[in-house]
Amino acid sequence: MSRLIVISNRVAVPKARGAAGAQGGLAGALQAALKRNKGLWFGWSGKEVENPSAEPDVQTSDGVTTATIDLKHQDIEEYYSGYANSTLWPLFHYRIDLTEYERETGIGYERVNDLFANTAAPLIEPDDLVWVHDYHFVPLGERLRRQGIKNRLGFFLHTPWPPTRLLVSLPYHERLVRSLLEYDVVGFQCDEWLESFLHYCRKELGADVNEDTGEIRLDDRKVLARSYPIGIDYAHFTGSGDSGEARQAEQRVISSTRRRIAMIGVDRLDYSKGLPEKMDGFARFLERNPGRNQDIVFIQIAPPSREGLESYQQIREELEQKTGQINGAHSRIDLVPIRYVNEGHSMAELYGIYRASKIGFVTPLRDGMNLVAKEYVAAQDPEDPGVLILSQFAGAAQQLDEAVMVNPHSPDDIARAIRKALDMPLDERKRRWEKLHASVRDDDIAKWTQNFVTDLENAG
Ligand code: G6P
């Protein structure tokens, strides 16, 4: 078996690990994948230093070897905060209103991709499979090729891929997408993102695209593009439910909500997650159903994210205001409808919290996949499972079609879904959950890794 080299911006150190969904999918999922395929995980240390060393810091812990480099201030500003998170992230989530187009950050992004390629190249041996992840590193494959790397190179995008009409608003879009065609396999979370990508390659690059097989030919390049829906580490996650930590968290929710139903949301504090819209939908439910504030407590866990960026500071303020307004309007001396929690939780605690909550509330405006939805399903009691409310705009909606589907832009739709979930009889809950559960259990992280790695092995 070839050695697997994984390259991603974030490299999770085991101590910092929460559940995959809560920390944003990628790091938790890769940790699980790498434990199975012995290899090397290369990326940013997360640290800013004045004079970064050219040598990566290599460590082995918990069965995974990591190699990380530090970055200097300017690199973080232009590559991470700038082009990756102020240009590509909003654009890939269909938010051209928030997308900043600065040539300088684009240049910084390419420079840092060069830096990663130069540092990674000496670590790569001739038989290795190289698997690059996410929007931080679109041109990395091309940069590795320039370093003389002939290995099979794969790329997986954890976010959505935008429709062509949005993508062409990006200056130098062609240059960015062409660089993707230096990989041998390019993977997406679901068919919708894949179709947009194939459409772009055909319309904008004039590539020869086989829609059935996902084979793209351009000049002398042959690339396979496919969807590989990511899953959770089912065995590990459900295993964590056996711990005292999980049971305690479950009890804390149950005893503090008493006879009311807990509805749980867990999202990074990101504008793509539709948090204000969720609050509006919940407020509409309370307005339309007088007296039912007695039946439900909405617990929203939202760990802050990318706090240096203004768009993230704004969403945080907006959410604090909305929560205050809704609680002000609907609280009684013995009840508060929304518990808004900023602190993060461990995997076991989240398992317990999900299990104690009879409604899972996942309503992103756009999401590559969304692993919180899958973790919620995995944590349910088969004899008395909760109901998943899910945005139709999450990649997960294509697989989890037995969820109560909502349009997160419509407060009425959300309000109706909450009511439906609250009143759903046990037999319907069980019937829906069994199908959801089978999909979450069977299409897990091991299957995702295996599918991608097999295609990469056969490529070229
Ligand atoms: C999303 C991205 C990941 C990213 C994560 C957390 O899930 O797809 O690449 O690591 O968010 O964001 P951060 O900026 O903290 O790495």
TrEMBL record:
In Swiss-Prot or TrEMBL terms, this protein is called Trehalose 6-phosphate synthase
- Which GO terms label this protein's molecular function in UniProt? alpha,alpha-trehalose-phosphate synthase (UDP-forming) activity
Q: A biological process (GO) annotation for this entry?
A: trehalose biosynthetic process
Which SUPFAM superfamilies does the protein's record reference? UDP-Glycosyltransferase/glycogen phosphorylase
- CDD domains, per this entry? GT20_TPS (cd03788)
Pfam families the UniProt entry points to: Glyco_transf_20
Q: Which organism is it from?
A: Altererythrobacter xiamenensis
Q: Which family does it belong to?
A: Belongs to the glycosyltransferase 20 family.
Q: Which domain of life is it from?
A: Bacteria
PANTHER family under this entry? BCDNA.GH08860 (PTHR10788:SF106), TREHALOSE-6-PHOSPHATE SYNTHASE (PTHR10788)
Origin organism lineage: Bacteria, Pseudomonadati, Pseudomonadota, Alphaproteobacteria, Sphingomonadales
